[in-house]
Amino acid sequence: MDLKGRFTHIFFDADDTLWENEQYFRDAEARFTELLADYTTPEGVQDMLWRKQEDNIPLFGYGSKTYLIGMTDAAMELCGGMLPESIYYGIKKIITELAFHEFRLIEGVEETLKALYGRYTLIVATKGDLTEQLYKYRLSGLDKYFHHCEVMENKDEKNYLELAAKLDLRPEQILMIGNSVKSDIAPVVNIGGVAIHTPHEVVWVHEMMDMPESDRIIEINDIREIIPMLI
Ligand SMILES: [Mg+2]
Fold this sequence. Notes:
Helix content is 46%, strand content 12%. The chain is α/β, with parallel strands linked by helices. The protein folds into 2 domains: 9-19 and 105-230, 3-Layer(aba) Sandwich (Rossmann fold); 23-99, DNA polymerase, domain 1 (Orthogonal Bundle). Strands 3-2-1-4-5-6 form a 6-stranded parallel sheet, sandwiched between helices. The protein is elongated and about 60 Å long. The protein starts with 8 loop residues before the first strand and ends with a helix. The structure holds magnesium ion (MG). Residues 13, 15-17, 178-180 line the site of magnesium ion.
């Protein structure tokens, strides 16, 4: 598929596409499991947390604050309705450190953005907690390459159609680059756009999905591979 001259805008997912994210959540879950070790097995803790996250995400969205609620709900149930102070403050410490974890760009990202800057309008298309996402966006130092950062409510077909309309683009003019099949690839392809998949070794259980069949999906291993495709 020839991409050259076909697009004016390029959309980039943020978490685990531009910078590391998921690993910090996995680390936080491991610490939570340890915190609750006296109450049940590691699998029991993980399972309870997963269920409580499923309850809370539709109400409160994504991000570490929802994890605070999910972990507290899970711990409350595992502790039989009596949550010890030490567990609550243990959770709060895990979440605080999660929210302000070290920040690491994914290799090749800056080089790629530098190459594309000035030739395309580059836009971050992310979802999650608005404050957290904008905090990471500014911290990244990548804002100088981007036109702006769009924090989407969710990343479904409807949200991508709204995003295209906002920028006076037709859906087939969307070129999206991201690590999540569910959020970055499937919805974009379903509305007629092109998606480039940059897999990340850690995938959140709530984001898991099989890759759809489409000739408008390109698989790469390193984000730098998009440079010769687009220039
Ligand atoms: Mg992502």
